[in-house]
Structure formats: C-alpha cells, structure tokens
Amino acid sequence: MASCRVPLVLLACGSFNPITNQHMRLFELARDHMHSTGRYQVVGGIVSPVSDGYGKQGLVLAKHRIAMAKLALQSSNWVTVDEWESQQLDWTETVVTMRYHYGRVLKEYECNKEQDSFNRNPTSLSNVSPQLKLLCGADFLDTFKVPGLWQDEHVEEVAGRFGLVCVSRGGLQPEQAVHESDTLSRHGQNIFLVREWVRNETSATEVRRALRRGQSVKYLIPDSVIEYIHQHDLYTEDSERKNEGTVLRPLTKQAKKPVKSLDD
Predict the structure, then answer these.
(1) What gap in Å lies between CA 159 and CA 188, rounded to an integer?
(2) What residues does 166 pair with on adjacent strands?
(3) Is the confidence at residue 184, as pLDDT, over 90?
(4) Does the pLDDT of residue 2 top 90, yes or no?
(5) Is the peptide bond before 18 cis (omega within 30 degrees of 0)?
(6) What gap in Å lies between CA 90 and CA 86, rounded to an integer?
(7) 127 CB burial (10 A radius; 0-12, 13-18, 19+)
(8) Residue 12 CA to its chain's centroid (Å)
(9) pLDDT in the model for residue 169
(10) Which of 157, 166, 231, 164 is nearest to 195 (CA)?
(11) Strand 131-137 relative to strand 79-81: parallel, antiparallel, unpaired?
C-alpha cells in the first residue's frame, strides 16, 4: 500500500550549463525505479544549480542557468528549480546543500501534518518521515575517488545518512565505483543503481560546443531554452573562456582542510 511507503524527494546538484533533456530524464528514470522497489513514493524533485563561485570553465551566470532550468521544467508537475545554492557567494559542499533541503522537506512535512492535509488523502503518507536522496549520473560516483575533492566525512554522510540514486550513463559502471570504495560499499543498501536502457548520451559540454559552432541543438534541449540562449547570446567562444585556467573551487576550498583520498 502507498501509505506504507516512504515519501522521497530527489535532489540533483550540478552546473546545468545548460540544462538538457537528459538532466530531466534522470528524474523520470529514478522515480520509476524507486517506485518499483515497493518501498518509496517519490513526492518531489529538486534541481539545484551550483553558484557562480564554482569556477568551472565556461560556466555562465547562475541567473541564466536558473532561468533556463525553470523554462525547461515548466512541463513537469513534480520537479522544481531551487535558487538557494546558486545564490551563495561561495561554492557550497553538496552535503551542505543536502542538509539545507532536507531541513526544508522536514519542515514542510511537519506543517502538512499539523494541517492534517495528508489525512484527506486515502494514500496518506503522514505517518512516515520523508527522506531526501541525491540523484546523479554514474560519472558522479567516480568523483568520490578524486583526491582533495571530497572530505571522507562528507562522503559518509551523503551515502549513509541520505543515500544516492545513480542512473547509468554510457559505458560507465557504477557498480565498480561502489565496489572500489569502502565507504560506498558499507552503505550499499542506501545506493540505488538505475539502468537506463534507452541510451541518451546528451551532455551539456557537447551542447555548448554545438552552440559555439552555430550548429543545431534542437531535440537535445527544450525549444524554450534554445530561444533563451539565443536571446541572451549565451555559449559563445568568449563565454567558454570564462574561468579559463581557474582551479575548481572545491579543490581550493577543501585544500584548506585535512583531506584524505577515499582509497589511501
């Protein structure tokens, strides 16, 4: 019964530079998979674009990435765009973003419970505390192995306290990434690997490259996003040189703290 299921919110963090159909497809694949477990009821999805402080080459301003994401998700009745992370002056650790959103999810849950709004629905979830899990592509798991990119305790919290829903991409093997990490293996029951049988290799990098070269990106990203890009003259040769030679903020920020590789 749905009433026995755990309410689940899926959170996707990233550049979304720009958001693609593949980004949005991840949410649909993940929701289907989590429902198929019989344990969860996905009640919401959140797209959280990174702040300008991330320092990645070619990263256009957050206000544009937020606007494009909102345009792209106008057709979704359950995935929304949140601006909190993008508005931070400095890059925010993923685990900090997860803590923030989980606090919001819990607060909304308590408010709904007090208002007895769930009780008007025969598939009420009010007696089960909600969960928040990080939604990502298979390549994300490999970032845990990059020296200096993650703190061990953050990986522990993301995998152990929250959990991940990881969708396969291309020839990547997320099972191997889990196997090679003691931390991820220890929390394997909280890591859900989703197989995407309909292959879609669209990447924001390739979309930007096509745009710089004046090539069509129709059917790779929503028409509304294409129109926005042309309207604001985004993803040009000049914009791709932005932050060129800059070290990613996670590496410089984490370097100030004692960090160990996961596989030391």
Answers:
(1) 8
(2) 136, 193
(3) yes
(4) no
(5) yes
(6) 9
(7) exposed
(8) 2
(9) 67
(10) 166
(11) unpaired
Chain segment 78-112, per-residue pLDDT in tens: 999 999 999 999 999 999 999 999 999 999 988 87
Question: Taking all residues of the chain, what is their mean pLDDT, rounded to a whole number?
Answer: 89
Q: Can you tell me the mean pLDDT for 125-149? A: 86
235 residue type, one letter: Y
Q: Which of 247, 202, 205, 201 is nearest to 58 (CA)?
A: 205
CB 168 within 8 A of CB 194: yes
Number of Cβ within a 10 Å radius of residue 203? 17
Give pLDDT, residue 263: 39
Q: Across-strand partners of 81?
A: 47
Tokens (6 digits) for 177: 């990434």
Helix (H) or strand (E) holding 152: helix 152-156
Whole-number Å distance between alpha carbons of 252 and 149 = 9
Highest mean pLDDT among 172-181, 213-222, 237-246: 213-222
**Rounded to the nearest 5°, which phi and psi values hold at 167?**
-100, 130
Residue showing tokens 């909280």: 190
Cα 141 from Cα 245, distance rounded (Å): 25
CB atoms within 10 A of CB 153: 10
